[in-house]
């Protein structure tokens, strides 16, 4: 399975949206250079308040561009980076990946998917109802979180729009993604 990077985004502030960039630089074990969520330990404010020594399993946030299409069709004003993602992709079923899947981004960067992004109420500050629009129920009535996946950086490198994404599943048995 492969896909493409549509946009890359980063920002030094703890704000919901991140401005698009021509390139982002991933640093092994840390995240996106210059991004507010860069670090070996957790950087999300609510998680820091609970336990600042937790490992940072949310170094890179990826959202599938297909979600943005779905949200725009529902009347939401969406652009890459608006929901705080670092990488907007197309052509990869991010939500269907197994925990531990590796994604090769561009020529050198490699990230490992750690889990699902748990949408929070801050999305409603962007546009009322956005949080609910990123949640759904499957046929069994289980909650489906659609707001992308989180990853850690295994190998650093530059990532740009139009870079290829190669998917490397982990060894069997696969574990489904859970919120991190």
Automatic annotation (TrEMBL):
GO MF annotations, alphabetized: catalytic activity; molybdenum ion binding; pyridoxal phosphate binding
Organism superkingdom: Bacteria
Domain MOSC: start-end pairs: 16-168
UniProt-listed InterPro entries: MoCF_Sase_C, MOSC_domain, Pyrv_Knase-like_insert_dom_sf
The protein's name: MOSC domain-containing protein
Lineage start: Bacteria, Pseudomonadati, Pseudomonadota, Alphaproteobacteria, Rhodospirillales
């Amino acid at each position: 399975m492969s896909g493409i990077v549509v946009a890359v985004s980063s920002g030094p502030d703890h704000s919901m949206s991140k401005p698009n960039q021509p390139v982002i630089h991933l640093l092994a074990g840390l995240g996106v250079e210059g991004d507010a969520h860069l670090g070996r330990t957790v950087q999300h404010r609510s998680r820091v308040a609970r336990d600042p020594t937790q490992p940072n399993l949310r170094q890179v946030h990826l959202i599938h561009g297909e979600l943005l299409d779905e949200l725009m069709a529902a009347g939401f004003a969406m652009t890459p980076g608006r929901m705080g993602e670092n990488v907007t992709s197309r052509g990869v079923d991010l939500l269907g990946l197994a925990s531990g899947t590796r994604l090769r981004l561009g020529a050198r960067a490699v990230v490992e998917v750690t889990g699902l992004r748990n949408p929070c109420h801050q999305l409603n500050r962007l546009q009322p109802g956005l949080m609910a629009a990123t949640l759904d129920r499957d046929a069994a009535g289980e909650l489906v979180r659609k707001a992308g996946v989180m990853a850690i950086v295994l190998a650093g490198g530059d990532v740009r729009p139009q870079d290829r994404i190669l998917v490397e599943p982990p060894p069997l048995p696969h574990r489904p993604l859970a919120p991190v």
